[in-house]
Fold this protein.
Amino acid sequence: MEATARADQCRYFLFGGARGPGKSRWLRWYTLRGLLKFAAQGLQNVRAMLACEDYPSLRDRQIEKLRREFPAWLGDYASSVSEFQLRARYGGGVLCLRNLDDASKYQSSEFAIIAVDELTKNSESTFNALRGSLRWTGVEQPQFLGATNPNGLGAQWVRRLWIERDFPDYLKPLTDEFVFVPGFPRDNPYLSEAYLTDLHAQPEVLRKAWELGDWYAGVEGLVYPEFTAENITDDEPAPDVPIHLAFDDGYVDPRAILFVQQTGSGVLIFDELYHRQHLAETCVGEVLKRCAENSWPVPELAVGSPEAKELQARFRMADIPARGSSGDVVQGINHLRGLFCDGQGHRHIRVHRRCRNLIQELTELYVYAEGKRTLSEKPLDGNDHAADALRYYCSVRCR
């Protein structure tokens, strides 16, 4: 009921975040309800799309259930075209069952409603392509609906838009139209206790995603599973407290520079620079420019990778004392884990949500080799630049 009420008030709606609340069922019935509402407004033969990432998923999650649930007196399902058409007395609307293996094939299509089941199994480019087909004469507010679990290849972009509300410039005029309503297994009274027990008995990463709807627990083998949504903040730096920098050097690989502030309550990572093929002097200039634009003081210290001699020299030339951080990688990782969440549940480190690259590394990209996850194992190299910058800093400044 809450999902229906909130979806009625917006154009881009997402429902779910866990397994079992009835997302897929809600999606097909809400879309059918939309066609009936159009008919009540005098609009005839309106078309809506209900889609999955491929045809086998579409058949299993939607088509077979639709054929059992939608009453025959309301309309007919035509398997030859995968469409359910309402009878003329109910407006003649059409619910088109479609797969998204190639979203470009709908480029010339028009739909008053587009509903996508398991949205995170699709790419952001698919989402943008579908939005181009979101139009119908006489419908002032066409809708895009999504239902999904918080894991899948597209989890990051879905999370960014609906959970973090971090919009690219071209979507900022639609910010107020994006609404998310979570759903949880125990919201559904028809689930058996056996199913709920099985959800609870999943490996920890899957349990957090499927049972609790944790959008930051969707990758197996993460180096920092302690980092969750509770570590993410909208807090800005205090104007009267010094700021520091944490850095990991690179040129072909990214160079990551984090803006850090320590207070009595913990450590705030409030901004980042993340660039490839920038000279050291260019990046130092960008640090100073970012500070000037935001009226931040010039950083009082920079701590980072010990081999970055040129970058350290450039910081010093800009009157920013700089030093390298040495120490065992595994010990540094274990230390940082405790800062993300210690044994008492205290989270010493908070990261502003605009630090997109750092958050993506911590929640998706920085992982162990398959089957390896011990306190003495080194993670895979490659997707660790911002995370390593933070590790270097904390090894020196957060003991």
Remarks:
- The chain has a mean pLDDT of 89.
- The domain at 229-397 is CATH 3.30.420.280 (Nucleotidyltransferase; domain 5).
